[in-house]
Structure formats: C-alpha cells, structure tokens
Amino acid sequence: MQAQEIIEKYIEFFEGNGHKRIPNSSLVPLNDPTTLFTSAGMQPLVPYLLGEKHPEGTKLVNVQNCFRAQDIDEIGDNRHTTFFRMLGNWSLGDYFKSEQIPWFFEFLTDRLNIPAEKLYVTVFEGNDSVPKDTESEQIWKRLFEERGLNAKERIFYYGTDKNWWSRAGAPDKMPSGEPGGPSTEVFYEFTNIKHDKKFGEQCHVNCDCGRFLEIGNSVFMAYKKQDDGSIKPLASPNVDFGGGLERLIMATEDQNDAFSTSLLKPLVETIENTTAKNYDSNKKEMRVVADHLTASTFIISNGIKPSNKEQGYVLRRLLRRAFDNFYLLNGDSITSIVDKIVDQYSQTDPDLKSKYEEIKNTILTEEEAYKRVLTEAKKFINKRYKKTGDELMGVTEISAEDAFTLYTTHGLSPTQIKSLGFTFNDQEFARKMEEHSSKSRTASAGKFKGGLADHEEQTIKGHTATHLLQQALRDVLGDSVHQTGSNITTERLRFDFKYDKKLTDDELKRVEEIVNEKIKENLPVHFEMMPVAEAKATGAIGLFDDKYQENVKVYFIGPLSGPREDAYSKEFCGGPHVDFTGKIKKFRIIKEESLGKENRRIYAIAE
Ligand code: SER
Predict the structure, then answer these.
(1) For residues 482 and 371, what is the distance between their CA atoms, to the nearest angstrom?
(2) For the chain, N or C: smaller number of CB within 10 Å?
(3) For ligand 1, atom 2, which residue shows the shortest CA distance?
C-alpha cells in the first residue's frame, strides 16, 4: 500500500472516531531548547500531556515528520532510517486502553488488511511504582480470541527497558517533570525470515534478527517524574500513540526491506542507475545514501544550512556520510537522487518542490566544500610526513595524533580518514576521542538544562522576554523581522530572526530600551484560543500556514480589556509565560551576530 493511501486511511479512521487533525510541526523545533530535532509526534504536545488545555480538544491525530540522529549508526540494516514519518493519535485525558488498543487493531486488520495472524504484542510487566498491565493483556486476549487465535502465543510481557516510554527512556533516566508511562507495542512477523543465532539463542518479538518488526507503540502516558525521583500518576492519564509510516508500508507490502518498498525502492533504483551498480551487492552503501540524502533534504527544507553547530552539524555529518558512500559506489549524479527524493515525497510535503533549488544548491555547495576539505587533509598529511602535493604521496600509516587532528580540525570521521587510504592505531584514537568528549560534555553541561520544557521560573521569564524582544525588533527594524528560532535556558535566552543587516549599536540600544519600558509598564500576559482567521485579524504573528489547524492559542501582552489589536505583543504560542511583564526585572542584550544570509541571532538576559 502506498504511503499516501496509508496516511489518508489513518487520518480518516481517527477523525471518524472523533479526533481533530493537528498540523505537522517543524522538523526543527522553534521553541524547544531541549532538543535539536522533532523525533516523535508527541514532542510538540508535551505541555498538553502535562495538563494544559489544547485548543483543538482532547482527541488529536496527525502525521509528523521525524528525525532521529541517534539511529545514524544503525542505517544500513533493513529497517532503520533517520528520517521517518510518524502516524500519531493522542488522548489528552480522554479515552484510554479500552479504546486505543481495539482501535489500532481494527486499523491494522480492517483498514490496512494486515492479517491478524501476523501480529504479536508486548505489554508492561510492572515495577515497584507501576503495576503489571493486565488490563492491556486482557484487551489483546479478547481481540486475538475473537479472530480465532491463541492469545497465549501472541502476548508477551517486558520490563521498563522495552515497555516503558518517555522522551528520556526508562523511569530512572527521566528528568523531574517529564511525562511517561507503560506501553504496548505491536509487532509484524515476516514469516519468510528465519532466526539468525548471531542475535541470540532464541528468537523473540524484540529480537533484532529482522523476523519481527515493531509497527506501533501505544504509550499510556499516565505518570510524571517527581522532584524526589519518584513516579506519580498524572491528574488525567493520556494516550500517546506513534507508528512509523515506513514500517507500516513494510507490513502492508510484506516486504522485510524498507528500501525495497514502494516508497524507497524508486530512490534505490535511481542510485543504481547513477552508479551502474546493483542494490543486492551494495545494500549498505545504497541504504545510507538514500536515507541520509532524504533526511538532509527535509532538514534543508526547514531552513538549516551545514555548519559546525547544532542542527547544521548534524546535517553536515549526514551529507558527508552520504557523499562518502556515494563515492564508494563511484556515483555520477547526486542531483538525480535529490530530484527523485523531492518527487517521491512532494505528494505529502509539497513544500519540497518550491524549495527544490535551495535544497539542491545547499547539497552541491557542501559537496564542493567537502572536496576542498579532503584536499586540505591530504596536504596536511603530506606536509607532516615531509611530502608535497594534493595527492597522497605514498603515506599510508599515520599517527593517532594526526588522525585526531584531521578529526578535530578538518571534521573528518575515523571512517572518512580511513577511506582516504590511511591507517592508524584505533585504540589510541578511541582514547583521544573519549578524552575529548568528556571535555566537551563538561563544557556543554547544562547547555539545554532548564529550557522551556522544565518550566523553571527563570526560563519562563526568558520566554516572555522573547515575545517582547520580537515586537521591539519589529518596532525598530520594521515588520519584515520574524522569528526563525529560539533557545531559552535559565542562564540566557537566544532569539533568531530574519533580517538582512547587522544591527547598529543605536538600534540594539533602542530595542533594549523598549523591552525594559514594557517590563516597567507591568503589562498583563494572557492568552485566548481562537480560530486562525480571527487570530490573524488581531495582527498576531506566528506560524499559521497549515490548513489543518482551526483554532490557535494566542498570547497577548497588553491590557486585559479593550480591542485585542491594541495589545503590545500578539503571538501564536503554546506558553507558558509569566502573568505580568513586571515579573521580569531587567532585560539586557549581550550579543548580536549573523547566522548567515538574512538570519541574525541575539543573546540576552532577562533577570
Ligand atoms: N512517543 C512514542 C514513540 O515515539 C509513541 O508515540 O514511540
């Protein structure tokens, strides 16, 4: 079944069961400093899972573009991709297990026509704070038995390592304030795959041999980590369901290789054409090229450029891994693959077509830059070994120290260094890496600590200050200014915005003064939920351009009565904020810098 058809069936099924469709959020979160990329559909919903009221109600459904950098090293097997689309449905304190489990089963078996005998499930075995999930087991038992299947052979209990979900993982890893809960997962069996003992003596549903594929995870997000480290029930329990579209396609097509499904096979065929090589003999390389270029295409379409920082760094790493593998295959035209990706995904993401030139040029420019890095790396090594020239002059073995310099100053990974034809002492290199990463861990400790997600007082002040800052920038520089990102910690706030010139000292001073005036006026900060058209009419700014969102939450900074248009700041935003601007004592800009073409960044402190 094609991707688009599965998406339509899923949305239709859950809308039919009273859900409201909410938009796909940006792959690069705008206001969540705790993470670089959106990696699950629930991520933008955290405040609502913790009890805030969602403007669209208590039953939501969507399709979310996700990127998981942590899976980067897994790419090359039959099922992992860094970029994927997650089908998600949520109950915000509304329905629970007895609706969610039968709904998902019905969706799989009746709408996607997946035979029930291909399905296996897992449930939570319980721990000291949360009981064994016998309720889910009983529901699954009934569902399997209604289809004439022996439930005993299909339901398995696992502990917190497999059947507990939170953004941080198992309960002991969850930071204070984090929501999480037990889960029930559904697995599809590829009956043509025989267990490989390399993965363990006995096969089981969570085995990595490829026989079973997880196709959906219903999290009963009913708990919250407390300051004292305990896990306590939330006032109202939620459901957070996520299922990978790429994997559901594998199940509907009974295709155990994600790269051979109707979605990804066309990409692989394009790679085969441009490399004149065949997929069966070059699976790993072709899978990396297909996955990494797809992820890069989406990341670039979200406005990110390759760089040495944050999202830009991840993008650079993805692209360079894609180039390395493409060169190993002696590929001819990388553009032909990008064209195919845009073609394949533009049905669900039409934006890709309008951003095609930007995507292609970014990839080609980075490829040129990478080629220069490789030339420089060769020159560096030749010089160290007293040779000259861009080509390697017979140097093959280099010291771990030199390899490490190539890593830190030229940005080359150990694999890239090896693919240039050098060998070095791996253990010595690993030791240097470990030293280096423990230093950088210390240097960046607390970097994302205390962001909006933790709702600390200082962070909330910073959040309100960014609204004042955005409006003050518009007052001074004009209405073309608009936010492209933010990152707020307890120590400082960071605000990125579109503007094409460096700000003068006078302009910065004026912006700072305006924000401080608004703080002194002690204006109330309040929100209203309203239809998009009404929000726009008030002059509120924000991301309104998705056709599925009907109601939005708008924060006003200004009088509680009188026309809303008269409020000083009006922004579409999820919150939270201080209730009066006077809660912020003083606002100071500490730095203004360029982020590249037409993008500026301000660092400031809201005391
Ligand atoms: N949040 C869960 C996951 O990512 C279910 O949506 O698997």
Answers:
(1) 35
(2) C
(3) 242
What Cα–Cα distance (Å) separates residue 369 from each residue in 142, 307, 325, 361, 517?
Answer: 59, 11, 17, 12, 46
H or E segment to which residue 8 belongs: helix 3-16
Nearest ligand 1 atom, CA 41: 6
* Local structure of residue 541 (DSSP, 8 states): B
In tens, the pLDDT along 499-558 reads 989 999 999 999 999 999 999 988 888 877 777 777 888 888 875 544 445 667 788 998
Work out which ligand 1 atom sits closest to the CA atom of 88: 6
Q: How far is the CA of 89 from the centre of ligand 1 (A)?
A: 10
CB 539 within 8 A of CB 520: no
At 223, which amino acid appears? Answer: Y
| Residue spans of beta strands (DSSP E) within 202-338 | 212-219, 223-225, 231-233, 239-244
Query: Cα(35)–Cα(31) distance, rounded to whole angstroms?
Result: 10
Residue 42 near ligand 1, beta carbon < 6 Å: yes
Task: Kindly state if the Cβ of 41 falls inside 6 Å of ligand 1.
Answer: yes
Which residue out of 86, 91, 220, 248 has the highest number of ligand 1 atoms within 8 Å of its CB and is therefore the one to mutate?
86
Alpha-carbon distance of 181 to 172, in angstroms, equals 12
Q: Are 183 and 160 in contact (CB under 8 A)?
A: no
**Ligand 1 contacts CB of residue 219 (under 6 A):** yes
Asked if the model's pLDDT at residue 267 lies above 90, the reply is: yes
- How many angstroms does the Cα of residue 486 sit away from the middle of ligand 1? 25
Residue 503: CB atoms within 10 Å: 19
Q: Verify whether ligand 1 is closer than 6 Å to residue 44 (CB atom).
A: no
With DSSP H G I counted as helix, E B as strand and the rest as coil, what are the percentages for the chain, rounded to 5? 45, 20, 35
Peptide bond into 576 cis (omega under 30): yes
In this prediction, residues 147-164 reach a mean pLDDT of 97
Q: How far apart are CA 393 and CA 387, in angstroms?
A: 6
27 contacts 38 by C-beta, under 8 angstroms: yes
The packing angle between helices 505-520 and 457-477, to 10°, is 130
Nearest residue (by CA) to ligand 1, atom 3, is 242
Cβ neighbours of residue 563 closer than 8 Å, sequence gap 6 or more: none
Q: Are strands 179-189 and 223-225 parallel, antiparallel or unpaired?
A: antiparallel
pLDDT tens, position by position, 120-134: 999 999 999 999 999
422 lines ligand 1 (CB under 6 A): no
Q: How many CA atoms lie within 13 A of 549 on its CB side?
A: 21
Tally of CA atoms within 13 A in the half-sphere of 176 that contains its CB: 9
